[in-house]
């Protein structure tokens, strides 16, 4: 897998399509959609690594959000139509914002933007919104772990956000504006982390294309188990490694309450993911073909 720095104006699907062409592979997927206007970390998985997308998508994420107060838009970001321009309260400053941030921490109920890719009766909400269909959107539970003010220059707030899957930073901006009665929208967004992948580890599509041309792509490549490092690891003797490859139940004790572990052979090769089925019983959930590191692309679509 590769940690791509998505540029503004690209959809996440655009990035996947470009990587397919660069790598000459069909099996390519991304872990966590970014809006076209947003930039930053977009993990892209190739070949067998596409099987860990679901785990990587569930990991924590971090963003740097630029929020402008006093202007509301129908999309909750700078791409939408302005729906209201309101005066800022005299009390709006960094201290006042810091005082209200705790109400957005922890597990909260959040209403997604109407202009979103969520579906209602099989239709995307943004398609319904563009058609003028009024839809009542129910709030959903989301997890916000940290909110840190980076900068405040009236009327613009720069805010670092650490959150879980499904959190809409656009909705957070809108809701902050509602607290102060002046409205707000998301002016810019950079995703700074997805799971173990930080912004400093990313590369542009141009750099990736050059790396494939000159054969240095392996210097930017991450193994599939990089996405699973929060799981405990189990080293399997040859007998159990064979049972894993055959999809058979494996028995070994493991302290703690982990429901999944990543499994390795005695020589350090990543074998797959095991799911707990009994106190000491583990069922193969994902089995990975063991291939030489020098040939990951050749074997990826096998």
Write structural notes for this entry:
The protein is an alpha+beta fold and 302 residues long. The chain folds into three domains: 87 residues, Pseudouridine synthase (2-Layer Sandwich), CATH 3.30.2350.10; 134 residues, Pseudouridine synthase (2-Layer Sandwich), CATH 3.30.2350.10; 70 residues, Archaeosine Trna-guanine Transglycosylase, Chain: A, domain 4 (Roll), CATH 2.30.130.10. It is built from eight helices and 18 strands. Strands 1, 2, 3, 4, 7, 10, 11, 12 and 13 form a nine-stranded mixed sheet that branches. The longest helix is centred in the first third of the chain and has 12 residues. It is globular, with a radius of gyration of 22 Å. The C terminus is likely disordered.
Task: Give a nutshell description of this structure.
With 302 residues, this protein is α+β, with helices and mostly antiparallel strands.
List the helices and strands and how they pair.
Blueprint lengths: L1 E5 L5 H12 L4 E3 L8 E8 L6 H5 L3 E9 L1 E3 L8 E4 L8 H7 L5 E5 L8 E2 L2 E2 H6 L9 E14 L2 E8 L5 H12 L3 E11 L2 E2 L6 H10 L18 E4 L1 H8 L4 E2 L8 E6 L4 E9 L2 E7 L8 H5 L2
Helix pairs in contact: 1-6
The count of strands amounts to: 18
Q: In CATH terms, what is the architecture of the largest domain?
A: 2-Layer Sandwich
What is the helix tally? Answer: 8
Q: Can you tell me the CATH class of the largest domain?
A: Alpha Beta
Gyration radius, rounded? 22 Å
Specify the structural class.
Answer: alpha+beta
């Amino acid at each position: 897998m590769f940690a791509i720095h998505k540029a503004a104006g690209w959809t996440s699907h655009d990035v996947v399509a470009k990587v397919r062409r660069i790598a000459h592979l069909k099996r390519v997927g991304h872990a966590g959609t970014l809006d076209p206007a947003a930039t930053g970390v977009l993990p892209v998985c190739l070949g067998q690594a596409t099987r860990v997308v679901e785990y990587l998508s569930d990991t924590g994420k971090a963003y740097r959000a630029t929020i402008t107060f006093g202007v509301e838009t129908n999309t909750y970001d700078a791409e939408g139509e302005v729906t209201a321009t309101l005066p800022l309260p005299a009390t709006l400053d960094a201290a006042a914002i810091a005082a209200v941030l705790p109400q957005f921490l922890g597990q909260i109920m959040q209403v997604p933007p109407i202009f979103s890719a969520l579906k209602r009766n099989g239709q995307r909400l943004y398609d319904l919104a563009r058609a003028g269909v009024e839809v009542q959107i129910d709030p959903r539970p989301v997890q916000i772990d940290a909110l840190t003010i980076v900068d405040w220059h009236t009327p613009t707030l720069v805010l670092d956000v650490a959150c879980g899957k499904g959190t809409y930073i656009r909705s957070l901006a809108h809701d902050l504006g509602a607290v102060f009665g002046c409205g707000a929208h998301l002016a810019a967004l950079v995703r700074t982390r997805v799971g173990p992948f930080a912004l400093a580890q990313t590369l542009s599509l141009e750099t990736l294309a050059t790396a494939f041309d000159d054969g240095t792509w392996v210097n930017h490549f991450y193994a599939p188990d990089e996405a699973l490092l929060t799981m405990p690891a189990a080293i399997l003797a040859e007998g159990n490694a064979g049972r894993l490859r055959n999809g058979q139940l494996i028995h070994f004790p493991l302290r703690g309450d982990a429901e999944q572990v990543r499994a390795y052979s005695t020589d350090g090769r990543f074998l797959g993911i095991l799911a707990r089925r009994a106190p000491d019983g583990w069922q193969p959930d994902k089995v990975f073909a063991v291939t030489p590191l020098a040939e990951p692309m050749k074997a990826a679509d096998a």
